[in-house]
């Protein structure tokens, strides 16, 4: 392939054709029967003053039989390759180019620099290799190195639009977020389906394609009019002493969105995690602006938002509990994940329903060419994945599964945890089908299940089940539509059989049906529109409590089912007035209806919502719209690029959330419940304004950014002192509406590539809540602002990876953060025969600061491309310094005295080993 | 000490936070108004967190119980923050409140609470578990009115000295100071020890068809405890609560006894039903309840493994120096037997011979 690329560069530099004619006329004598082309060319080179260029792999099926005496070279070649698709051409320097399926042009089109129309009329003959016009609806595979004509001559005036897919040549998988550009003014990136749409001017162009882990590819084009061009690019197989020269990696500067973090699975795998399992959510928490309350929690907090204010999407499916095993693992199999995107500031108008962020996790598409897979063995989990074609180049699948065998670990627990068990599984299945170039179908299924019991006879279990199907239709190269529908389910239950009279089963479940239609309309390089509609139908069983066994006296209890309908419509206008300024303005209108049948408690207006102020109940029949909440949401962002390496962005967002997680623990616990907005529980509203500066240094190899934000949250639910959240029929009496304000600054320096890569970030952030409504009875901290549980003002994160050589790399993680707030004892008293602790105002103090260092080493097997399996090892240490970082600090009355304790989840170094195999 | 918890190497360490002094001390009221029988309430103040200073009682307050029926009954101070009334004689079903006037002139009242009748304790049972013995209460209310229960208890247990002694050191008994013990006055082989509940014990039957309390755990005696070494007795008192009181006790229990589990809720503010008459923002802790008290005593005797490490040291008899040195004031042993040849006393550590040195009293309780 490299020969061919070289060849094209050579042909462009050629100009005269006099000498070539001489060589072509050189007389040849030979008598060959069935010889390899290489032998043939070598003989010709001896007899004529010329040099042959060819790709030996393309000719390996060809043999030459020829008898010639005093025959001109040109005739010899013509005769030798008669009846084949092998072509030859001469250039001015006596070079002969042998190609298969196409002819090399050894001189430039004579009128290349003339307007296309003129060109078309003056040069009606095909002088290049192929013509892929839009009209004949043919989509071509462009291999880098060919000169390609796009469009139909005589059609192009002004700007033209080039569209197509960028795919991996090896697997056929679409490449997301690949940069596609001709020069600094004409560039774009591919969407999540690998599709791009680029506006350029007609004429001779070099189309450059860059994607992480793939070879930088350059395609030579002559563009006449609108056209389609797919490019298959090769995986980057690293060679020693590779020199990468790049000056185009400026997407952080040019992207109009701000506060978007995108990580590929390769980035994720570089970050060391506990037990060595590549963990999507744990990597997220090392990004600026993302916090977590502690180690045993997969819930995360984005810019002062609570854990339920993140919309976690896995291939369009909403995942309600994204964690396994008390939050030690995220519920996503790293083998099938392609990449993740976290929107924390400008949330596109097509997303909604949560206040703080959208975490969009997409899985890979299956290999369309051949069956491949991988398997991994770790200390606690094992995983496997398989992918391959169902119908070659049309339909493919990808299947991933993980399971755990952690019971042996539990045997190490002290006696009171005897009989503990913990298991989890997850399964992902993705199926992709291409009907034709403009119709694609994507189906995705996800299942996760956790079961654990700790020493007691109480068994906890929870499960996510999701399925979605999406149809993508490309109307034309300016207009694309997506139709999506699916179902998401989450449930948990708790069973206890310890005391036969009180034996019970407690449970909760939520299911939602969703469907939506999204459209992208690309008008021209200055204007584009995204628009769509969507709806979600919620059905939520807030809890049931029922007897287990014949002796149980438990009265079955069930809280009435809640149903709601959330609908939305949105429109986004993307506008680039000039190359420096880019504006995206979106408006989303969302409406929520709380649906019957339901019996709703009513309270004295203006009085605290307590049992004593309940005036009665009102019953609504099935399908009745009991309460409607609606309102517009603004999504605006703008970017101004001062130079190619320096830009400023600003964004303003408002959001609405109609479903709430009720929790009085600091993390997502297995017994947390979700609650729909109803006449007594208002939706949460959020508003954020942010400003950022982005500057790249050293030819864009170092990216820096600084962002500031201010955020207001209204009607966030906090719990009242002593609240009961499980099996509470009148949950509104146990929660308070709070108002929150969050502000902060995020500074990041990132080196995305090179031997030493990674990032350093510093975040300053605050989140303060206030139970402002004086009619609400129990007011927390006298109605003053108090820090939320996850308010950790200072945070420094370093995630670094050093590639010692191609088979060995070292990753280092460092994290420092302020300790989270807690409610500390400020005194003691005697009650019920014992000394007890008197607590301060809520969250008035903090636990000690947190810092942790992790180290991991990745050792790859040999890098031969063609071998049956590729092996790799990961060896590392989580919490390398063995620091006992406090997760919580608490005080208990034991034998009548107060004792203070500090609880660390990982109180020592955790070594880990993982073995991975790819086939 | 690190404990492997939650399958991870989690770790629990002692932690003493920086000293935080709030300056103020707040009134703490612990009161159950017993409609029939002794009512004893305790008024104290909150204290600083460091254990160096004692919790101060609230002295010289005027305490009375006021009824919705405009009745008023006084409680008299018996010192140490305790205020008693032998029998308030309240009417079941009528609402009463506590009125407190402290010596600094502040006045506090509780909310009105309804005087309730507590159902009797059906029985007290026990079960041997892996790590010890659990004492359980059974109760029920056919009217299904009670639903919320609280218990506290006094406990008594008999202990025996590993080496019963018939000898005693007597400085006046010359020349060798050792004489025979006078029984039963000088017997220190058998003692009784006393304890009271120090944790909040609650149960409810709100989720059951009937108002039945079955095997509600009230006390747990760990393996190896001396409490069951001979015989153990528990005097359990049962109180009916209303929902507010139950929530108060439950929150106090959550805040102070059940904190620390990874899924534990955060501690939260706790107040009760007592307020300063003039300043409702003043923090007052305590929940006044009004219910009769049901008592039941249970004796428990089970095969129990109890072990004390006791050495025997032989001390030459008829040697004033030796006996004074080992058995005299400041000596390390108590004699318990004499044998020969050669003539010598067997002695052991005081707690091995004298049960009063283990905190016991030799006076046999009346109910034993």
Structure notes:
Chain A is mostly beta strands and 919 residues long. In chain A, 7% of the residues lie in helices and 53% in strands. Chain A contains 9 helices and 59 strands. In chain A, the strands form 13 sheets. Chain A has a 22-stranded antiparallel beta barrel. Chain B is mainly β. Chain B has a domain at 161-191 and 308-358. Chain B is built from 3 helices and 25 strands. At the A-B interface, β52, β53, β57 and β58 of A face β1, β3, β17 and α1 of B. β58 of chain A pairs antiparallel with β1 of chain B.
Straight-line distance between termini of chain A: 25 Å
Q: Figure out the total of helices of chain B.
A: 3
Q: How many strand elements of chain B?
A: 25
Structural class of chain B: mainly beta
Average pLDDT of chain A, rounded to a whole number, is 79
CATH superfamily of the largest domain in chain A, by name, is: TonB-dependent receptor, beta-barrel domain
Helix content of chain B: under 10%
- Greatest interface: A-B, 86 and 72 residues
For the largest beta-sheet of chain B, the strand count, sense and barrel status come to: 11 strands, mixed
Strand content of chain A: over 45%
Using the coordinates above, name the CATH class of the largest domain in chain A: Mainly Beta
Helix fraction bin of chain A:
under 10%
């Amino acid at each position: 392939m490299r020969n061919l690329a070289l060849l094209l560069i050579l042909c462009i530099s050629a100009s005269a054709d006099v000498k070539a004619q001489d060589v072509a006329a050189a007389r040849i004598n030979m008598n060959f029967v069935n010889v390899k082309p290489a032998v043939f060319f070598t003989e010709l080179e001896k007899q004529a003053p010329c040099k042959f260029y060819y790709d030996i792999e393309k000719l390996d099926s060809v043999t030459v039989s020829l008898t010639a005496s005093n025959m001109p070279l040109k005739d010899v070649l013509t005769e030798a390759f008669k009846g084949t698709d092998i072509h030859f051409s001469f250039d001015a320097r006596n070079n002969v180019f042998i190609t298969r399926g196409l002819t090399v042009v050894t001189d430039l089109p004579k009128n290349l620099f003339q307007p296309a129309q003129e060109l078309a009329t003056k040069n009606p003959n095909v002088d290049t290799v192929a013509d892929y016009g839009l009209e004949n609806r043919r989509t071509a595979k462009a291999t880098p190195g060919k000169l390609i004509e796009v469009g139909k001559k005589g059609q192009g005036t002004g700007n033209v639009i080039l569209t197509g897919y960028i795919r991996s040549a090896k697997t056929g998988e679409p490449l997301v977020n690949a940069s596609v550009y001709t020069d600094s003014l004409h560039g774009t990136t591919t969407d999540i389906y690998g599709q791009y749409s680029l506006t350029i001017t007609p004429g001779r162009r070099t189309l450059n394609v860059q994607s992480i882990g793939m070879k930088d590819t350059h395609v030579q084009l002559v563009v006449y009019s609108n056209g389609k061009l797919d490019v298959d690019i090769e995986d980057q197989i690293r060679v020693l002493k590779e020199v990468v020269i790049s000056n185009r990696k400026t997407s952080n500067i040019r992207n109009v969105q701000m506060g978007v973090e995108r990580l590929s699975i390769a980035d994720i795998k570089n970050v060391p995690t506990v037990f060595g399992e590549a963990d999507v959510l744990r990597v997220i928490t090392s990004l600026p602006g993302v916090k977590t309350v502690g180690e045993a929690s997969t819930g995360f907090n984005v810019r002062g938002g609570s854990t339920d204010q993140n919309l976690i999407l896995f291939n369009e499916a909403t995942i309600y509990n994204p964690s396994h095993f008390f939050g030690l693992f995220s519920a996503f199999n790293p083998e099938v994940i392609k990449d993740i995107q976290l929107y924390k500031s400008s949330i596109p108008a097509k997303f909604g329903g949560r206040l703080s962020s959208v975490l969009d996790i997409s899985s890979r598409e299956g290999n369309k060419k051949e069956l491949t897979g991988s398997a991994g063995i770790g200390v606690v989990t094992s995983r496997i994945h398989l992918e391959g074609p169902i119908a070659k180049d049309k339909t493919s699948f990808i299947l991933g599964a993980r399971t755990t065998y952690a019971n042996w670990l539990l045997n190490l627990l002290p006696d009171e945890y005897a009989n503990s068990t913990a298991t989890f599984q997850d399964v992902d299945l993705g199926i992709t089908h291409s009907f034709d170039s403009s119709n694609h179908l994507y189906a995705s299924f996800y299942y996760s299940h956790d079961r654990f019991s700790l020493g007691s006879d109480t068994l906890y279990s929870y499960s996510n089940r999701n399925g979605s199907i999406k149809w993508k239709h490309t109307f034309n190269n300016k207009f694309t539509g997506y139709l999506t529908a699916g179902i998401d389910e989450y449930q948990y239950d708790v069973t206890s059989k310890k005391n036969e009279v009180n034996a019970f089963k407690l449970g909760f479940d939520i299911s939602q049906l969703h469907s939506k239609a999204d459209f992208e309309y690309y008008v021209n390089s200055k204007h584009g529109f995204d628009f769509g509609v969507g709806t979600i139908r919620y059905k939520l069983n807030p809890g049931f409590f029922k007897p287990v066994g014949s002796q149980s006296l438990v009265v079955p209890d069930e809280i009435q089912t809640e149903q709601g309908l959330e609908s939305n419509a949105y429109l986004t206008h993307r506008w680039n007035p000039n190359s420096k300024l880019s504006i995206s303005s979106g408006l989303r209108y969302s409406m929520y209806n709380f649906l019957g049948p339901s019996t709703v408690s009513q309270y004295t207006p203006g009085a605290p919502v307590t049992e004593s102020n309940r005036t009665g109940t009102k019953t609504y029949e099935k399908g009745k719209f009991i309460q409607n909440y609606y309102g517009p949401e603004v999504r605006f962002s703008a970017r101004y690029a001062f130079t190619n390496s320096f830009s400023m962005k600003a964004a303003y967002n408002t959001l609405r959330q109609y479903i709430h997680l009720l929790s009085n623990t600091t993390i997502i616990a297995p017994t947390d419940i979700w609650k729909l907005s109803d006449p007594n529980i208002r939706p949460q509203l959020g508003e954020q304004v942010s400003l950022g500066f982005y500057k790249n240094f050293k030819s864009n190899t170092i990216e820096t950014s600084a962002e500031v934000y201010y955020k207001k949250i209204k009607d966030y639910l906090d719990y009242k002192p002593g609240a009961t959240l499980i099996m509470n029929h009148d949950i509104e009496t146990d929660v308070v509406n709070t108002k929150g304000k969050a502000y902060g600054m995020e500074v990041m320096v990132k080196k995305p590539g090179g031997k030493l890569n990674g990032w350093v970030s510093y975040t300053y952030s605050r989140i303060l809540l206030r139970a402002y409504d004086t009619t609400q009875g129990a007011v927390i901290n006298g109605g003053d602002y108090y820090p939320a549980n996850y308010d950790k003002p200072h945070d420094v994160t370093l995630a670094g990876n050093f590639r010692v050589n191609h088979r060995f790399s070292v990753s280092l993680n460092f994290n420092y953060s302020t300790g989270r707030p807690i409610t500390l004892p400020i005194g003691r008293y005697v009650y019920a025969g014992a000394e007890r602790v008197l607590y301060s105002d809520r969250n008035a103090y903090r636990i000690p600061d947190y810092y942790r260092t992790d180290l991991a080493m990745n050792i790859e097997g040999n890098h031969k491309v063609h071998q049956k399996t590729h092996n790799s090892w990961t060896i590392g240490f989580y919490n390398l310094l063995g620091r006992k970082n406090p997760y919580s600090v608490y005080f208990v009355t034991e034998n009548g005295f107060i004792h203070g304790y500090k609880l660390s989840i990982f109180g020592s170094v955790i070594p880990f080993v993982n073995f991975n195999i790819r086939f | 000490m690190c404990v492997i918890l939650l399958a991870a190497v989690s770790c629990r360490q002692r932690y003493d936070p920086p000293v935080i002094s709030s300056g103020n001390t707040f009134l703490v009221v612990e009161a159950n108004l017993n409609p029939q029988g002794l009512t004893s309430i305790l008024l104290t103040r909150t204290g600083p967190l460091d254990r160096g200073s004692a919790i101060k009682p609230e002295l010289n307050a005027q305490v009375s119980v006021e009824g919705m029926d405009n009745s008023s009954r006084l409680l008299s101070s018996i010192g140490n923050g305790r205020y008693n009334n032998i029998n308030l004689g309240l009417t079941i079903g009528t609402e009463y409140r506590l009125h407190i006037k402290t010596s600094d002139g502040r006045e506090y009242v509780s909310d009105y609470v309804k005087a309730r009748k507590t159902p009797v304790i059906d029985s007290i049972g026990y079960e041997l578990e892996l790590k010890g013995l659990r004492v359980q209460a059974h109760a029920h209310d056919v009217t299904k009115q009670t639903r919320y229960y609280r218990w506290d208890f006094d406990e008594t247990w008999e202990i025996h000295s590993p080496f019963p002694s018939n000898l005693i050191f007597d400085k006046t008994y010359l020349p060798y100071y050792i004489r025979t013990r006078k029984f039963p006055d000088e017997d220190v082989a058998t003692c009784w020890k006393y304890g009271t509940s120090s944790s909040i014990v609650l149960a409810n039957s709100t989720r059951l068809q009937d108002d039945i309390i079955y095997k509600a755990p009230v006390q747990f005696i760990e393996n190896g405890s001396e409490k069951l070494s001979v015989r153990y007795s528990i005097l359990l008192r049962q109180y009916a609560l209303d929902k507010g009181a139950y929530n108060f006790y439950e929150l106090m229990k959550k805040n102070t006894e059940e904190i620390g589990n990874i899924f534990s809720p955060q501690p939260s503010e706790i107040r009760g039903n007592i307020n300063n008459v003039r300043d409702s923002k003043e923090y007052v802790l305590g929940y006044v309840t009004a219910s009769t008290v049901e008592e039941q005593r249970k004796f428990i005797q089970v095969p129990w493994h109890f072990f004390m490490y006791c050495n025997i040291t032989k001390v030459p008899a008829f040697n004033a120096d030796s006996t004074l040195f080992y058995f005299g004031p400041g000596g390390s042993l108590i004699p318990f037997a004499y044998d020969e040849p050669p003539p010598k006393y067997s002695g052991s550590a005081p707690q091995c011979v004298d049960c009063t040195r283990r905190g016991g009293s030799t006076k046999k309780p009346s109910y034993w």
